Amino acid sequence: MTEQTTFPQGFLWGAATSAYQIEGSPLADGAGPSIWHRFSHTPGRTHLGQTGDVACDHYRRWAEDVELMHGLGLGAYRLSLSWSRLLPEGRGAVNPKGLDFYSRLVDRLLERRIQPMVTLYHWDLPAALDDRGGWLNRDVVDWFADYARVAFEALGDRVTLWATINEPWVITDAGYLFGVNAPGHRNLFEAPIAFHHLLRAHAAAVRAYRANGRGKIGLVVNLEPKVPASDRPEDVAAAARDDRYNNLYHLDPVFFGRYPDGMQDVFGEGWPAFAPEDVARIREPIDFVGVNYYTQRVVRHDAKAPLGFSSQSVPGALTMETGWQVVPAGLTRALLWVGERYGKVPVYVTENGAAFADPARAPEGRLDDPLRVRYYRDHLLAVRDAIQQGVDVRGYFAWSLLDNFEWSRGYSLRFGLVHVDFDTQRRTVKASGNYYREVIATHGGVLAEPVSAAP
Ligand code: BGC
Prior knowledge:
This protein is an alpha/beta fold. It has a single domain (3-448), classed as Alpha-Beta Barrel (TIM Barrel).
Protein backbone atom coordinates (compact mmCIF):
# COMPACT_ATOMS: atom_id res chain seq x y z
CA MET A 1 0.00 0.00 0.00
CA THR A 2 1.33 3.39 -0.89
CA GLU A 3 0.47 5.95 1.70
CA GLN A 4 -1.27 8.42 -0.53
CA THR A 5 -3.67 5.96 -2.21
CA THR A 6 -5.29 4.10 0.72
CA PHE A 7 -6.22 1.16 -1.46
CA PRO A 8 -5.19 -1.79 0.69
CA GLN A 9 -2.46 -4.17 -0.27
CA GLY A 10 -3.90 -7.07 -2.22
CA PHE A 11 -6.82 -4.95 -3.45
CA LEU A 12 -8.03 -6.59 -6.65
CA TRP A 13 -8.26 -4.45 -9.75
CA GLY A 14 -10.55 -6.29 -12.09
CA ALA A 15 -13.07 -6.17 -14.88
CA ALA A 16 -16.23 -8.23 -15.31
CA THR A 17 -18.27 -9.90 -18.02
CA SER A 18 -20.94 -12.60 -18.19
CA ALA A 19 -21.21 -15.71 -20.32
CA TYR A 20 -24.22 -14.99 -22.52
CA GLN A 21 -23.20 -11.39 -23.03
CA ILE A 22 -19.80 -12.16 -24.57
CA GLU A 23 -19.28 -15.79 -25.49
CA GLY A 24 -21.33 -16.36 -28.64
CA SER A 25 -21.53 -19.92 -30.01
CA PRO A 26 -24.27 -20.70 -27.48
CA LEU A 27 -24.94 -24.19 -28.83
CA ALA A 28 -21.38 -25.17 -29.70
CA ASP A 29 -19.75 -28.42 -28.60
CA GLY A 30 -22.85 -29.96 -27.12
CA ALA A 31 -24.14 -27.00 -25.09
CA GLY A 32 -27.88 -26.77 -24.49
CA PRO A 33 -29.94 -23.63 -25.08
CA SER A 34 -30.50 -21.19 -22.23
CA ILE A 35 -33.53 -19.02 -21.56
CA TRP A 36 -31.63 -16.11 -23.03
CA HIS A 37 -31.04 -18.01 -26.26
CA ARG A 38 -34.72 -18.74 -26.43
CA PHE A 39 -35.82 -15.24 -25.41
CA SER A 40 -33.54 -13.41 -27.82
CA HIS A 41 -34.73 -15.64 -30.65
CA THR A 42 -38.36 -14.79 -29.90
CA PRO A 43 -39.50 -11.97 -32.19
CA GLY A 44 -39.98 -8.62 -30.48
CA ARG A 45 -38.04 -9.36 -27.32
CA THR A 46 -34.75 -7.60 -27.99
CA HIS A 47 -33.55 -4.48 -29.75
CA LEU A 48 -33.74 -5.22 -33.50
CA GLY A 49 -34.11 -8.91 -32.68
CA GLN A 50 -30.44 -9.10 -31.73
CA THR A 51 -29.15 -12.24 -30.04
CA GLY A 52 -26.05 -13.56 -28.30
CA ASP A 53 -25.33 -15.98 -31.16
CA VAL A 54 -22.02 -14.25 -31.90
CA ALA A 55 -21.72 -11.51 -29.26
CA CYS A 56 -17.97 -10.90 -28.76
CA ASP A 57 -17.11 -14.35 -30.09
CA HIS A 58 -15.23 -14.85 -26.86
CA TYR A 59 -15.88 -18.59 -26.93
CA ARG A 60 -13.40 -18.73 -29.81
CA ARG A 61 -11.30 -15.64 -29.08
CA TRP A 62 -10.82 -16.22 -25.36
CA ALA A 63 -7.02 -16.46 -25.62
CA GLU A 64 -6.80 -13.10 -27.38
CA ASP A 65 -9.10 -11.63 -24.73
CA VAL A 66 -6.90 -12.88 -21.89
CA GLU A 67 -3.95 -11.12 -23.57
CA LEU A 68 -6.07 -7.98 -23.70
CA MET A 69 -6.70 -8.26 -19.94
CA HIS A 70 -3.03 -8.86 -19.36
CA GLY A 71 -2.22 -5.76 -21.42
CA LEU A 72 -4.53 -3.70 -19.20
CA GLY A 73 -2.72 -5.01 -16.15
CA LEU A 74 -5.84 -6.60 -14.64
CA GLY A 75 -5.24 -8.49 -11.44
CA ALA A 76 -8.66 -10.13 -11.49
CA TYR A 77 -11.40 -11.08 -13.92
CA ARG A 78 -14.99 -11.79 -13.02
CA LEU A 79 -16.63 -14.19 -15.46
CA SER A 80 -19.73 -16.35 -15.30
CA LEU A 81 -20.22 -19.96 -16.30
CA SER A 82 -22.92 -20.96 -18.72
CA TRP A 83 -24.90 -23.60 -16.81
CA SER A 84 -26.16 -25.16 -20.06
CA ARG A 85 -22.64 -25.53 -21.47
CA LEU A 86 -21.78 -27.62 -18.44
CA LEU A 87 -25.13 -29.41 -18.16
CA PRO A 88 -27.00 -29.12 -21.47
CA GLU A 89 -30.24 -30.28 -19.85
CA GLY A 90 -29.56 -28.31 -16.69
CA ARG A 91 -29.19 -31.52 -14.70
CA GLY A 92 -27.92 -35.01 -15.30
CA ALA A 93 -25.21 -35.53 -17.88
CA VAL A 94 -22.17 -33.25 -17.79
CA ASN A 95 -20.77 -31.96 -21.09
CA PRO A 96 -16.97 -32.37 -20.85
CA LYS A 97 -16.32 -29.93 -23.69
CA GLY A 98 -18.13 -27.20 -21.80
CA LEU A 99 -15.99 -27.85 -18.75
CA ASP A 100 -12.83 -27.86 -20.89
CA PHE A 101 -13.59 -24.40 -22.16
CA TYR A 102 -13.71 -22.87 -18.69
CA SER A 103 -10.84 -24.98 -17.44
CA ARG A 104 -8.54 -23.76 -20.22
CA LEU A 105 -9.65 -20.19 -19.65
CA VAL A 106 -8.96 -20.40 -15.91
CA ASP A 107 -5.53 -21.92 -16.52
CA ARG A 108 -4.57 -19.17 -18.91
CA LEU A 109 -5.82 -16.46 -16.54
CA LEU A 110 -3.71 -17.90 -13.76
CA GLU A 111 -0.68 -18.12 -16.05
CA ARG A 112 -1.15 -14.40 -16.64
CA ARG A 113 -1.54 -13.79 -12.89
CA ILE A 114 -5.16 -12.75 -13.25
CA GLN A 115 -7.31 -14.07 -10.45
CA PRO A 116 -10.65 -15.42 -11.62
CA MET A 117 -13.85 -14.69 -9.74
CA VAL A 118 -16.46 -17.09 -11.05
CA THR A 119 -20.18 -16.36 -10.92
CA LEU A 120 -22.30 -19.49 -11.16
CA TYR A 121 -25.42 -17.82 -12.41
CA HIS A 122 -25.63 -14.68 -14.50
CA TRP A 123 -29.19 -15.04 -15.84
CA ASP A 124 -28.85 -17.84 -18.41
CA LEU A 125 -30.94 -20.66 -16.95
CA PRO A 126 -30.89 -23.84 -19.07
CA ALA A 127 -34.07 -23.76 -21.19
CA ALA A 128 -34.72 -27.41 -20.27
CA LEU A 129 -35.16 -26.32 -16.65
CA ASP A 130 -37.43 -23.46 -17.59
CA ASP A 131 -39.62 -26.06 -19.24
CA ARG A 132 -39.99 -27.57 -15.77
CA GLY A 133 -40.96 -24.24 -14.24
CA GLY A 134 -37.47 -22.76 -13.87
CA TRP A 135 -37.09 -20.51 -10.84
CA LEU A 136 -40.74 -21.06 -9.96
CA ASN A 137 -40.19 -24.74 -9.25
CA ARG A 138 -38.99 -25.50 -5.70
CA ASP A 139 -36.76 -28.25 -7.10
CA VAL A 140 -34.59 -25.65 -8.80
CA VAL A 141 -32.72 -25.37 -5.50
CA ASP A 142 -31.43 -28.94 -5.83
CA TRP A 143 -30.72 -28.51 -9.53
CA PHE A 144 -28.66 -25.44 -8.78
CA ALA A 145 -26.77 -27.06 -5.91
CA ASP A 146 -25.94 -30.07 -8.13
CA TYR A 147 -24.70 -27.78 -10.87
CA ALA A 148 -22.66 -25.81 -8.34
CA ARG A 149 -21.03 -29.04 -7.17
CA VAL A 150 -20.05 -29.88 -10.76
CA ALA A 151 -18.44 -26.45 -11.09
CA PHE A 152 -16.69 -26.63 -7.71
CA GLU A 153 -15.30 -30.07 -8.49
CA ALA A 154 -14.05 -29.07 -11.92
CA LEU A 155 -12.57 -25.67 -11.10
CA GLY A 156 -12.36 -25.44 -7.32
CA ASP A 157 -8.71 -26.48 -7.25
CA ARG A 158 -7.85 -23.26 -9.11
CA VAL A 159 -10.74 -20.86 -8.55
CA THR A 160 -10.89 -19.53 -5.00
CA LEU A 161 -13.39 -16.69 -5.42
CA TRP A 162 -16.97 -17.69 -6.18
CA ALA A 163 -20.20 -15.78 -6.49
CA THR A 164 -23.42 -17.78 -6.47
CA ILE A 165 -25.99 -15.60 -8.21
CA ASN A 166 -25.80 -12.26 -9.94
CA GLU A 167 -28.54 -9.86 -8.88
CA PRO A 168 -31.55 -11.92 -7.78
CA TRP A 169 -33.51 -8.68 -7.72
CA VAL A 170 -32.98 -7.89 -11.40
CA ILE A 171 -33.64 -11.50 -12.36
CA THR A 172 -37.10 -11.32 -10.85
CA ASP A 173 -37.96 -7.65 -11.35
CA ALA A 174 -37.05 -7.70 -15.05
CA GLY A 175 -37.67 -11.40 -15.74
CA TYR A 176 -40.82 -12.18 -13.76
CA LEU A 177 -42.50 -8.87 -12.93
CA PHE A 178 -41.95 -6.55 -15.88
CA GLY A 179 -41.14 -9.14 -18.54
CA VAL A 180 -38.28 -7.26 -20.20
CA ASN A 181 -35.69 -9.96 -19.52
CA ALA A 182 -35.87 -13.73 -19.93
CA PRO A 183 -38.05 -15.61 -19.29
CA GLY A 184 -40.29 -12.60 -20.02
CA HIS A 185 -43.09 -13.13 -17.51
CA ARG A 186 -45.21 -10.32 -16.11
CA ASN A 187 -46.71 -11.66 -12.96
CA LEU A 188 -46.92 -10.06 -9.54
CA PHE A 189 -47.52 -13.45 -7.93
CA GLU A 190 -44.59 -15.18 -9.54
CA ALA A 191 -41.89 -12.59 -8.85
CA PRO A 192 -41.55 -13.18 -5.07
CA ILE A 193 -41.66 -16.95 -5.52
CA ALA A 194 -38.88 -16.96 -8.09
CA PHE A 195 -36.93 -14.60 -5.85
CA HIS A 196 -37.34 -16.86 -2.83
CA HIS A 197 -36.07 -19.84 -4.80
CA LEU A 198 -33.09 -17.86 -6.06
CA LEU A 199 -32.08 -17.04 -2.50
CA ARG A 200 -32.69 -20.61 -1.35
CA ALA A 201 -30.55 -21.83 -4.26
CA HIS A 202 -27.83 -19.37 -3.30
CA ALA A 203 -27.76 -20.71 0.26
CA ALA A 204 -27.76 -24.32 -0.96
CA ALA A 205 -24.73 -23.61 -3.15
CA VAL A 206 -22.92 -21.98 -0.23
CA ARG A 207 -23.60 -25.08 1.87
CA ALA A 208 -22.34 -27.28 -0.96
CA TYR A 209 -19.18 -25.19 -1.17
CA ARG A 210 -18.50 -25.49 2.55
CA ALA A 211 -18.19 -29.26 2.17
CA ASN A 212 -14.84 -29.04 0.33
CA GLY A 213 -14.28 -25.50 -0.88
CA ARG A 214 -10.96 -23.92 -0.07
CA GLY A 215 -11.78 -20.36 -1.05
CA LYS A 216 -14.41 -17.69 -0.55
CA ILE A 217 -17.99 -17.55 -1.67
CA GLY A 218 -20.52 -14.73 -1.70
CA LEU A 219 -23.63 -13.29 -3.35
CA VAL A 220 -23.77 -10.43 -5.85
CA VAL A 221 -26.51 -7.85 -5.39
CA ASN A 222 -27.24 -4.55 -7.07
CA LEU A 223 -27.67 -1.77 -4.56
CA GLU A 224 -29.31 1.59 -5.23
CA PRO A 225 -29.59 4.17 -2.47
CA LYS A 226 -33.02 5.81 -2.47
CA VAL A 227 -33.66 9.46 -1.80
CA PRO A 228 -37.22 10.79 -1.36
CA ALA A 229 -38.18 13.35 -4.01
CA SER A 230 -39.55 15.66 -1.29
CA ASP A 231 -40.25 15.57 2.40
CA ARG A 232 -43.93 14.96 1.78
CA PRO A 233 -44.87 11.87 3.79
CA GLU A 234 -46.02 9.96 0.69
CA ASP A 235 -42.67 10.48 -1.04
CA VAL A 236 -40.77 9.52 2.09
CA ALA A 237 -42.89 6.38 2.38
CA ALA A 238 -42.43 5.62 -1.34
CA ALA A 239 -38.62 5.88 -1.02
CA ALA A 240 -38.70 3.59 2.01
CA ARG A 241 -40.80 1.07 0.09
CA ASP A 242 -38.45 1.15 -2.88
CA ASP A 243 -35.47 0.77 -0.52
CA ARG A 244 -37.09 -2.27 1.06
CA TYR A 245 -37.80 -3.78 -2.35
CA ASN A 246 -34.50 -2.99 -4.03
CA ASN A 247 -31.99 -3.20 -1.17
CA LEU A 248 -33.23 -4.89 2.01
CA TYR A 249 -35.12 -7.59 0.14
CA HIS A 250 -32.04 -9.58 -0.93
CA LEU A 251 -29.67 -9.03 1.95
CA ASP A 252 -32.00 -9.22 4.98
CA PRO A 253 -32.78 -12.92 4.38
CA VAL A 254 -29.08 -13.65 3.81
CA PHE A 255 -27.93 -11.94 7.02
CA PHE A 256 -31.01 -12.12 9.25
CA GLY A 257 -32.89 -15.16 7.95
CA ARG A 258 -36.08 -13.19 7.37
CA TYR A 259 -37.58 -10.85 4.80
CA PRO A 260 -37.82 -7.20 5.78
CA ASP A 261 -41.07 -6.12 7.40
CA GLY A 262 -43.54 -4.57 5.02
CA MET A 263 -42.95 -6.67 1.88
CA GLN A 264 -46.72 -7.06 1.81
CA ASP A 265 -46.85 -3.33 1.42
CA VAL A 266 -44.70 -3.62 -1.73
CA PHE A 267 -46.36 -6.62 -3.38
CA GLY A 268 -49.86 -6.38 -1.92
CA GLU A 269 -51.71 -9.62 -2.45
CA GLY A 270 -48.75 -10.90 -4.48
CA TRP A 271 -46.69 -11.45 -1.33
CA PRO A 272 -46.96 -15.09 -0.27
CA ALA A 273 -46.79 -16.48 3.24
CA PHE A 274 -43.33 -18.08 3.12
CA ALA A 275 -42.67 -20.63 5.83
CA PRO A 276 -40.37 -18.91 8.37
CA GLU A 277 -38.12 -21.98 8.63
CA ASP A 278 -37.69 -21.89 4.86
CA VAL A 279 -36.59 -18.27 5.00
CA ALA A 280 -34.35 -18.95 7.99
CA ARG A 281 -32.30 -21.39 5.93
CA ILE A 282 -31.33 -18.61 3.55
CA ARG A 283 -29.18 -17.29 6.38
CA GLU A 284 -25.94 -19.03 5.60
CA PRO A 285 -22.69 -17.22 6.43
CA ILE A 286 -21.06 -15.79 3.32
CA ASP A 287 -17.48 -14.59 2.90
CA PHE A 288 -18.26 -11.39 1.04
CA VAL A 289 -20.99 -9.30 -0.47
CA GLY A 290 -20.55 -8.39 -4.13
CA VAL A 291 -22.02 -4.95 -4.78
CA ASN A 292 -23.03 -3.91 -8.28
CA TYR A 293 -23.55 -0.18 -8.37
CA TYR A 294 -24.80 1.92 -11.25
CA THR A 295 -26.98 4.67 -9.86
CA GLN A 296 -28.92 6.18 -7.01
CA ARG A 297 -32.60 7.07 -7.35
CA VAL A 298 -34.80 9.95 -6.37
CA VAL A 299 -38.13 8.34 -5.59
CA ARG A 300 -41.64 9.73 -5.50
CA HIS A 301 -45.04 8.38 -4.73
CA ASP A 302 -46.78 7.39 -7.95
CA ALA A 303 -50.18 5.79 -7.61
CA LYS A 304 -50.17 4.80 -11.29
CA ALA A 305 -46.90 2.84 -11.11
CA PRO A 306 -47.26 -0.92 -10.58
CA LEU A 307 -45.59 -0.85 -7.16
CA GLY A 308 -46.77 2.66 -6.21
CA PHE A 309 -43.48 4.51 -6.73
CA SER A 310 -41.35 5.79 -9.57
CA SER A 311 -38.06 7.59 -9.88
CA GLN A 312 -37.43 11.05 -11.21
CA SER A 313 -34.30 12.57 -12.60
CA VAL A 314 -32.21 15.22 -10.91
CA PRO A 315 -31.94 18.19 -13.24
CA GLY A 316 -28.37 18.83 -14.27
CA ALA A 317 -27.01 15.41 -13.36
CA LEU A 318 -25.31 13.60 -16.21
CA THR A 319 -27.41 10.76 -17.60
CA MET A 320 -26.06 7.59 -19.17
CA GLU A 321 -27.49 6.01 -22.33
CA THR A 322 -29.40 3.64 -20.05
CA GLY A 323 -31.24 6.61 -18.56
CA TRP A 324 -29.43 6.14 -15.23
CA GLN A 325 -27.96 9.18 -13.58
CA VAL A 326 -24.33 9.47 -12.64
CA VAL A 327 -24.10 9.77 -8.84
CA PRO A 328 -20.67 8.65 -7.60
CA ALA A 329 -21.45 9.49 -3.96
CA GLY A 330 -24.20 6.87 -4.11
CA LEU A 331 -21.51 4.21 -4.37
CA THR A 332 -19.88 5.36 -1.12
CA ARG A 333 -23.34 5.41 0.45
CA ALA A 334 -24.17 1.90 -0.75
CA LEU A 335 -20.87 0.50 0.57
CA LEU A 336 -21.28 2.19 3.95
CA TRP A 337 -24.86 0.99 4.18
CA VAL A 338 -23.84 -2.68 3.94
CA GLY A 339 -21.70 -2.34 7.07
CA GLU A 340 -24.23 -0.21 8.91
CA ARG A 341 -27.03 -2.68 8.45
CA TYR A 342 -25.26 -6.04 8.36
CA GLY A 343 -22.06 -5.50 10.29
CA LYS A 344 -18.50 -5.51 9.03
CA VAL A 345 -18.27 -7.84 6.08
CA PRO A 346 -15.76 -7.92 3.23
CA VAL A 347 -17.14 -6.32 0.10
CA TYR A 348 -16.16 -6.38 -3.55
CA VAL A 349 -17.52 -3.88 -6.02
CA THR A 350 -18.38 -6.59 -8.51
CA GLU A 351 -19.75 -4.23 -11.19
CA ASN A 352 -19.58 -0.53 -11.84
CA GLY A 353 -19.52 1.18 -15.19
CA ALA A 354 -21.38 3.27 -17.72
CA ALA A 355 -22.88 3.16 -21.19
CA PHE A 356 -22.11 6.34 -23.04
CA ALA A 357 -22.49 6.68 -26.79
CA ASP A 358 -19.45 5.38 -28.65
CA PRO A 359 -19.26 4.98 -32.42
CA ALA A 360 -19.75 1.56 -33.99
CA ARG A 361 -16.22 1.75 -35.40
CA ALA A 362 -12.88 2.90 -34.01
CA PRO A 363 -11.06 3.44 -37.31
CA GLU A 364 -7.95 5.13 -35.91
CA GLY A 365 -7.25 2.29 -33.53
CA ARG A 366 -8.21 4.58 -30.68
CA LEU A 367 -11.38 5.79 -29.08
CA ASP A 368 -11.79 8.75 -26.80
CA ASP A 369 -14.51 8.32 -24.20
CA PRO A 370 -13.94 11.19 -21.78
CA LEU A 371 -17.25 10.77 -20.00
CA ARG A 372 -16.39 7.18 -19.11
CA VAL A 373 -12.88 8.17 -17.99
CA ARG A 374 -14.47 10.72 -15.70
CA TYR A 375 -17.04 8.19 -14.51
CA TYR A 376 -14.34 5.72 -13.49
CA ARG A 377 -12.26 8.31 -11.73
CA ASP A 378 -15.19 9.65 -9.73
CA HIS A 379 -16.46 6.21 -8.78
CA LEU A 380 -13.05 4.92 -7.79
CA LEU A 381 -12.66 7.99 -5.60
CA ALA A 382 -16.03 7.09 -4.10
CA VAL A 383 -14.69 3.60 -3.34
CA ARG A 384 -11.63 5.15 -1.78
CA ASP A 385 -13.87 7.31 0.41
CA ALA A 386 -15.68 4.23 1.63
CA ILE A 387 -12.37 2.53 2.44
CA GLN A 388 -11.25 5.61 4.33
CA GLN A 389 -14.48 5.44 6.30
CA GLY A 390 -13.74 1.88 7.32
CA VAL A 391 -15.47 -0.33 4.76
CA ASP A 392 -13.50 -3.49 4.04
CA VAL A 393 -13.50 -3.22 0.23
CA ARG A 394 -11.33 -5.97 -1.22
CA GLY A 395 -11.56 -5.24 -4.92
CA TYR A 396 -13.23 -3.46 -7.80
CA PHE A 397 -14.47 -4.89 -11.10
CA ALA A 398 -15.22 -2.49 -13.93
CA TRP A 399 -18.29 -3.32 -15.97
CA SER A 400 -17.37 -4.25 -18.52
CA LEU A 401 -14.19 -5.52 -20.07
CA LEU A 402 -15.77 -5.50 -23.54
CA ASP A 403 -18.71 -3.86 -25.25
CA ASN A 404 -21.19 -6.71 -25.30
CA PHE A 405 -24.75 -7.98 -25.66
CA GLU A 406 -26.65 -5.73 -23.29
CA TRP A 407 -29.61 -8.08 -22.80
CA SER A 408 -32.86 -6.79 -24.30
CA ARG A 409 -31.05 -3.65 -25.47
CA GLY A 410 -28.89 -5.83 -27.71
CA TYR A 411 -25.77 -4.12 -29.02
CA SER A 412 -27.23 -0.63 -28.71
CA LEU A 413 -25.44 0.12 -25.44
CA ARG A 414 -21.68 0.02 -24.97
CA PHE A 415 -20.22 -0.47 -21.50
CA GLY A 416 -16.73 -1.66 -22.43
CA LEU A 417 -13.28 -0.51 -21.43
CA VAL A 418 -12.52 -2.10 -24.77
CA HIS A 419 -14.49 -1.24 -27.88
CA VAL A 420 -15.75 -4.13 -30.00
CA ASP A 421 -16.50 -3.64 -33.67
CA PHE A 422 -19.28 -6.18 -34.03
CA ASP A 423 -18.79 -6.47 -37.81
CA THR A 424 -15.12 -7.41 -37.62
CA GLN A 425 -14.72 -8.40 -33.93
CA ARG A 426 -11.81 -6.02 -33.77
CA ARG A 427 -11.00 -4.90 -30.20
CA THR A 428 -9.75 -1.37 -29.47
CA VAL A 429 -8.82 -0.26 -25.99
CA LYS A 430 -10.77 2.93 -25.22
CA ALA A 431 -9.26 5.91 -23.41
CA SER A 432 -11.10 4.64 -20.32
CA GLY A 433 -9.27 1.32 -20.66
CA ASN A 434 -5.95 3.14 -20.87
CA TYR A 435 -6.91 5.24 -17.88
CA TYR A 436 -7.86 2.14 -15.87
CA ARG A 437 -4.49 0.61 -16.82
CA GLU A 438 -2.82 3.63 -15.22
CA VAL A 439 -5.03 3.40 -12.15
CA ILE A 440 -3.95 -0.21 -11.73
CA ALA A 441 -0.28 0.51 -12.40
CA THR A 442 -0.25 3.26 -9.75
CA HIS A 443 -2.49 1.32 -7.34
CA GLY A 444 -4.93 4.21 -7.46
CA GLY A 445 -2.28 6.95 -7.27
CA VAL A 446 -3.33 8.56 -10.57
CA LEU A 447 -6.82 9.20 -9.17
CA ALA A 448 -5.38 12.20 -7.35
CA GLU A 449 -4.91 13.95 -10.68
CA PRO A 450 -7.92 15.62 -12.30
CA VAL A 451 -9.18 14.44 -15.69
CA SER A 452 -11.06 16.38 -18.29
CA ALA A 453 -14.69 15.47 -18.94
CA ALA A 454 -14.99 17.56 -22.08
CA PRO A 455 -16.46 15.35 -24.81
C1 BGC B 1 -25.87 -6.79 -14.99
C2 BGC B 1 -25.06 -6.80 -16.26
C3 BGC B 1 -25.52 -5.67 -17.17
C4 BGC B 1 -25.31 -4.36 -16.44
C5 BGC B 1 -25.68 -3.13 -17.26
C6 BGC B 1 -26.10 -5.41 -14.41
O1 BGC B 1 -27.38 -5.37 -13.86
O2 BGC B 1 -25.30 -7.64 -14.05
O3 BGC B 1 -25.20 -8.04 -16.88
O4 BGC B 1 -24.89 -5.67 -18.41
O5 BGC B 1 -26.12 -4.35 -15.29
O6 BGC B 1 -27.02 -3.12 -17.57
